[in-house]
Amino acid sequence: MIDIYDSEFRKADLNLLVVFAALMREGSVTRAAAALHLSQGAVSAALGRLRRLFDDELFTRTRTGVEPTRRAVELARSIEPALGLIQGAVTGRDHFDAATARHVFTLGMSDDLEAALLPRLLAATTDLPGIRIAVRQANRNTVADMLDHGEIDLGIAAAPAHGPDHRTREMFASGYSCLFNPRLLPLATPLSLDDYLAHPHLLVSYDGRRGIVDDLLEVRGLTRQVIASTTHFAGAALQLTTLPALITLPTHAATVYADALDLTAVEPPLPMPQYTVSAIWHTTVTDDPAHTWLRHLVSEAERLTSPARRNE
């Protein structure tokens, strides 16, 4: 039980924590003031008191608003859930009402997962005017750190690296497919290894030099002709509208690009690994009603994302 008679606790104005939460969420004194129906001067004054209370700058000015310090990010992990519990106790509501809430949910994922999941997330939130979905580029090696720094609410990646402060849930299994434009590259299907190696490839990788396909071919003493590389699957797929080339990419994205750009997606002519895509979040938000709603929303979007499930 907390000591409500503690002198340090009694002299703290709990309304300041509401201002703190608004600044974290809005990233701007002006937007926080509008959200709280306060003047900018009142929010600036509250920020000054918050800085004295926590003996930290908390937010630094940027060209677009304010940026939280590391101390602010650490505080937010405790303050946000606590405010949610207090709100539930005061209002009698211990749930998140997406129909009336104003909330920005930030997801971290790579663009192949964004292609598969974001359209379904946007469709599910069309009739929720106060809900906004934001996506930041992330991968399995960065999502945990982004969660720890408060940059994202939920990460989605293949086998994300994580620690004891994180929780994960497996979402769906995926693999790899080959994508090409049948009007520019009229290849027979199933695709043969000879055809695969005889035509140019666009490489998608973080270093722009090598991908998983090159490793698998090297084991067989083979190589492919890579004519260009990019770090984005969507950018590579767009090139196929005018370029007679092949791309090997995750199946969940290949099917989306094939449908959108009238391309052909087929199985690669060499065995490639399967993998599992998982959601990852910080343990401190596990019981937060808003975050619980977000995870449910992602689960519904995931339901039709897996190639196996789409064919049911």
From TrEMBL:
InterPro entries in the record: LysR-type_TF, LysR_HTH_N, LysR_subst-bd, WH-like_DNA-bd_sf, WH_DNA-bd_sf
Keywords: DNA-binding, Transcription, Transcription regulation
PROSITE patterns: HTH_LYSR
Pfam families: HTH_1, LysR_substrate
Domain HTH lysR-type: 13-69
Taxonomy, superkingdom: Bacteria
Gene Ontology molecular function: any one: DNA-binding transcription factor activity
Listed transmembrane segments: none
Family recorded in the similarity comment: Belongs to the LysR transcriptional regulatory family.
Protein name as catalogued: HTH lysR-type domain-containing protein
Source organism of the structure: Streptomyces corchorusii (Streptomyces chibaensis)
